[in-house]
# Entry
Amino acid sequence: MTRHRGRGIASVNYPIGMNLGGDPSQALVHSNPSGKFTVALSSIDLGQGMKSVTRQICAETLGVPVEDVYVDTADSDTGPHCMGSFASRGTHRVGNAVMAAAREARGVMMEAAAEELEVNAADLETDGRGNIHVKGAPHRSISTKDVAIAAQFKQGKTISGRGIFLVPLSDVDPETGEMSPATCYAHACLVAEVEVDDETGEVDMVRMDSAYELGRALNPRLVEQQLVGGAWMGVSHALYETPEPYYPEPVHGPRDFVEYLMPGPGDICPHDIAVLERPAPDGPFGAKGPGEMCANPVLPAVANAIFNAVGVRIDDLPITPEKVLRAIKAQGGARPQPRR
Amino acid sequence: MAKTALQFQHNGRDVAIFVDGGTNLLVALRELIGDMTPKFGCGQGGCGTCSVLIDGELHLSCLTLAETVAGRSVETLDGIKDGPNLHPLQRAFADNFAAQCGYCTPGMLMAAKALLDRNPQPSRAEVVEAISGNICRCTGYEPIINAVLAASSGGRARA
# Structure
């Protein structure tokens, strides 16, 4: 029995969101009488952090503290339309919609403040701490709370804004049939190192090194969290998970969490991540989306690493010990490839 | 079926409920006591999110008959914080981004608490073993392991 080390690499271009029907998302932003703001969305945060990121985007666009923004998500009865949380689209699509809505609400807020301070709205700026003042004259100031109260009770205005993000439709080139399916691409490259046991066919992850280019990381800790967890999910898809292990034959499928294999805390490996920030021209504050892309490069990188280790090319996922062992036997033994 | 009177300590408080024969502890806690912190994941001991401590030992409440806790002390996630102050493990989970969707978190925290209660300075391998009965879909485990180590007495000494 020998354990063979192998290294594999994979790179991906990942299109953010989709293009079907323009892939729209909407947002509504309004101020409460307290001078705090509510963002209404029907978009869902499943734990990836869209609620935090849209809150940051709204606060930054309005020019108010992040504590003054509340994001109300995940209710399609009360929120405006959203296509959903998938395809790494949340930060980019919903973030753009929130930014547009916050921009409109900011316009109304500045007009209302201008009326109270008896100046031109173009001469006003926000200080990011909940105040609006005349440029160059910070003492001529009014709090966003007082502006909200004045708008509500004196001026009869709603400080509110509407936002939608809709991808421009891409026309098909009549000559070539070519079209642009996405406006924004993220990129990743990952090196996986594995150890393959040529007697059992088992594959152990040794380590991963990766670089992800995802526009501007609006919340670096959430991005890191997403990349760490997502890469693990990639490992899980590469080596463990399937509801139909002998597809198309629906036999011997897992029936519960005991039989549905996923790597546990003892199966993870060190993962060194580099985040490259290249702001996207059409992203909110330059953001793309780190979502699905964090899992994608792991699968081909692991398959390539297994080929490098024992010379078998498995193109059917997950790469189970049984498949590795059958392939090694079929070629008459492990054939380690030159170390990369 | 006749109901049985059942008394035990729930997070330090005496409680008395009537349970049907065969009721499991998870159902008793959630539906009869109203403590929603232990979660229902698989109902067969495969995921760990229903974990609670019984007399300080880690148990899967979905596989525990409610009647077997008569006179014993049951601790759930609801009882680990000190008034408005988070337990050091909860704080460490937040600081280390050890939760995403959060469904596994109650079980992870109870498994980690069981470990730190008996071994305040565990090694990384001991942390891995302690949470190996708990499934997490989102985090890749690394942030959870780091959080438990940070909340251990060794981690707090370094911080």
Remarks:
- The first helix of chain B runs from residue 25 to 33.
- Helices of chain B lie at 25-33, 88-95, 105-118, 124-130, 142-151, 153-158.
- The longest strand of chain B covers residues 3-10.
